[in-house]
Amino acid sequence: SGPRHMRYVLALPLIRHAVRAIDPELVVGYRIMSYGFLAALTGVHPLAVAAQGRVVSPPLAPLKQALVDYTLKRADVVNSWSPHMTTRLVEVGASPSRILTCPRGIDLSLFRPGEPADEREETVIVTRTMHRAYRHDIIVRTIALAASERPRLRARLVGDGEAREELETLCGDLGISDRVEFMGEQPPERVAGLLARAAL
Questions:
Q1: Residue 143 has what pLDDT?
Q2: Could you give the CA distance from residue 102 to residue 123 in angstroms, rounded to a whole number?
Q3: pTM assigned to the model
Q4: What are the CA-CA distances from residue 56 to residues 77, 84, 93 (Å)?
Q5: Region for 88 from its dihedrals, namely left if φ exceeds 0, alpha if ψ lies in -120 to 50, beta otherwise
Q6: β-bridge mates for residue 101, sequence order
Q7: Fewest beta carbons within 10 Å, which of 39, 70, 110, 178?
Q8: 167 with 161: CB under 8 angstroms?
């Protein structure tokens, strides 16, 4: 952990130069012990840091606690993603008056259980961005394999990304272009409706 944090310090002149050139109205540092620490080192305000991951897992080693102390003392706002993280942030030294607890997750008034299972469309929904790393090609090939046994099976790919054109070509090559719908970006309300009606 020492050498990595030394790299942060060595990068500081470049980071300060970049921040001065951008002249932001707000600096946000994710993860208190890494980007949040770097953001705090710039001396720029207002500074918001987002608590993620290990800072909520006790106990902190002395060096890590020093990084957390430094960052939390300089942050104008600390974004906590849940009440239990807020409790932990106070334990590790955050001022309660600077913590903003905003849980991440799903809007349950919009995304809620859908139709009964036997009334859902025989549709697979994928809402992951179409990056190659997410391997949408596996789902497309699976639809092709299942097509002969399940004539009503369809897939809807919501979103976009660099792999979309390749996936459209793959659907054509596999003869399932009529079964896979590329929907592009959709508003949350539309996605919620699609999910509620889909079997998978």
A1: 95
A2: 33
A3: 0.58
A4: 17, 8, 12
A5: alpha
A6: 80
A7: 178
A8: no
Burial (Cβ within 10 Å: 0-12, 13-18, ≥19) of residue 147: middle
pLDDT at 82: 84
Closest CA to 195 of 107, 131, 135: 107
Buried b (16+ CB within 10 A) or exposed e, 53-80: eebbeeebeeebeebbebbbebbeebbb
Could you read off the pLDDT tens digit of each residue along the chain, which spans 200 residues?
456 657 767 888 888 888 889 999 999 998 888 889 889 988 899 999 998 766 655 566 888 888 889 999 999 999 998 888 899 889 888 999 999 998 877 888 888 877 777 778 899 999 999 999 999 999 999 999 998 899 999 999 999 999 999 999 999 999 999 999 999 999 999 999 999 888 88
3-state secondary structure of 48: strand
Distances (CA, A) of 157 to 181, 195, 197: 6, 11, 14
In whole angstroms, how far apart are CA 139 and each of 91, 144, 154?
45, 9, 11
Strand partners, 50: 30, 79
Please report how the helices 2-22 and 62-74 are oriented relative to each other, as an axis angle in degrees rounded to 10.
20
